[in-house]
Amino acid sequence: MLGVWLSDPESERNIRLLDTGLRDLLVIVASDQPWLTDPAAAEHRIRILARSGAAGLAIMRTAPQDVPEAVLVNARKHSVPLLVGSEELCGSEVAQVVSRERLREYEDRAQQLEEMLDQIRRPGRQGHHRLQTLLDRLAKAVEGSVRLVDPHKAVLASELSAGGPLVEPPAAMVARIVGGEVGAASINHGKHSVRLYSIGYHPPHMVLIVVRDQDFNESTEKIIARSTVLLSLLIRAEEMDSDQYRLQQTMSSMRAAVLHLALNGLTQLAQEIGQSLYPGLFSADQVRVHLITCGERELNATASKLENALRQQALVVRSPFRSDQLFVVTPEWPSVSSSSSPPSSSSPPSSGEDRGMSVVQRLHHLVTDVPGLRMGASHPKPLASLEEAHQEAHRALTMAGNSQEKLVTAAREEPGLSFFLDPGAGQAWAEAFLRPLDTLAPAVRESILRTIDLSLRFSRLDVAKATGSHRNTVAARIAKVSELLALDLTRLPDRAVLSLALELRALPPHRPHTAHTPHTANAVSGERSLGDLLADDGAQEWARIYLGRLDADRRDLRRTLAAWVARGGNVEQTAQKVGVHLKTVRNHLRAAESLLNCRLLGTPGLTHDLVLAMHALGVAQVLPDHLVRSPSRRLRAA
């Protein structure tokens, strides 16, 4: 559209028209207008055109070389398109030129905005990098310097910036924008023009500072206006990401706390806290423990998949014992727990059964579908026996690793040595063996015994993670027990004997006799030694059953295991003793792991039963004399 310049732009009526009526109009003037040659008047009128949004200024009856210098300078300064032409200039031609130039201008702005959006939308960018990218683009677009001041920083030096020289605005002005008193402000600083804008939707605001060597025109103001919207949205998104991250961290800490309480026997407290998080889980009669192993890098992603798939019907926690494992506790309802294996979907379940089945089935399907995952599951246990369920799942996961199967449910465990020993004799020996620990305060003794029990099955670093202690604290507790009991807990025999003592100590004080309990030892007179216990008929029967599992393999596994135990678990020395290749020894050990349902390789290996069984049957005299003596004689000798 074409328009004409008003004869008196300073009148009140025409000022209103200029403010509202010139947008997108081309103002046409004759070349003999006096203000064209007056620098001050030219700047004033061209500034009015820029402010009102006029499409441009056309000067008739002149040539390009005859345009006054003041008009050229101010038109460039305020980004007002300037056209010149003869009297015969056609209006439609002018309209085409103006439309083409305005289209090019809009395309340039759109491209700038699209580049800004593309930069901040790129996946994998952190909030800081996206903000910096947007500031870089803005500085380039306005041909100046920009700076984003964070009000949470103690000093203005902690900020994102881009562009050329920076100008320090008055602190009082920045404070007013931060507090939300004003949304924008402008100052002149020598030859620089400075604008300040509030960023964010609620105070305290961030402050965007833009500095140019020339005045701000309509084009730059539009770019800045759109950039402030983008910055506000980006900062809000970053705040939401931060809030979400804090919420996830809090929930993760709560889940870990619930698991820690349950593993340490504080069942009622664990139920009270966990009931609000997982009501279905903590109202179940029994639970299963599932241990899932995967790479440490994939652990968080796998945990998220499990959480989404199980719909908060199972407790999913990073294992406190291993950094490459997830600890999953699922509910087990009465109709489901009667089976030793996960339920089948072939028969229609009851309402209670359906809840238990759906959780376990979804877990099994996920583990089956995701490459690289292996899972070991326990049998149903009361929540108070979560530690026992964890041990079962740990053994099942070991079997999954040995057999290369993805899913293994713990086999029904054969009765251990403690089941075959006379309860009175066994517990009397364990009490005497552990009596030196009575010198410790009760609370200290229990925490130390908990640490020692875990250290017999996991590495010191894993024990430190599980107990929330420093690894130096774990090492100090192990050293203290070693000193009081006169043991060397780096050796397999000493660890095996201490493991048996702790197992007997944990048994109920009055256990009824079983068919396997030898009646010859019912009445115990005097202090029994470990040698006496292992020579009893019950221990002998257990050892024959335990080592008899090895006979399923045609190879002479007993000979290899005897040499391996006698040499403290050293594979190289075992190969030299037996006279076979190193790989053969490892193959024998892996075969024995599957048959004995335990982990021999790794640190620490679960060799306790193997050591005791071999000594009981005389396959290898691996227990030194001081360990098989009565506790009092052993301590006197030490």
From TrEMBL:
Keyword terms of this UniProt record: Coiled coil
Keyword Iron-sulfur tagged: no
All copies of domain PucR C-terminal helix-turn-helix, residue ranges: 458-503, 557-602
Gene3D superfamilies named among the record's database cross-references: PucR C-terminal helix-turn-helix domain
Biased composition (Low complexity): 334-351
Presence of the UniProt keyword Coiled coil in the record: yes
Ranges in a coiled coil: 96-123
Region: Disordered, residue numbers: 332-356
InterPro entries listed in its UniProt record: CdaR-like_regulators, PucR_C-HTH_dom, PucR_C-HTH_sf
Annotated protein name in UniProt: PucR C-terminal helix-turn-helix domain-containing protein
Organism of this sequence: Streptomyces rapamycinicus
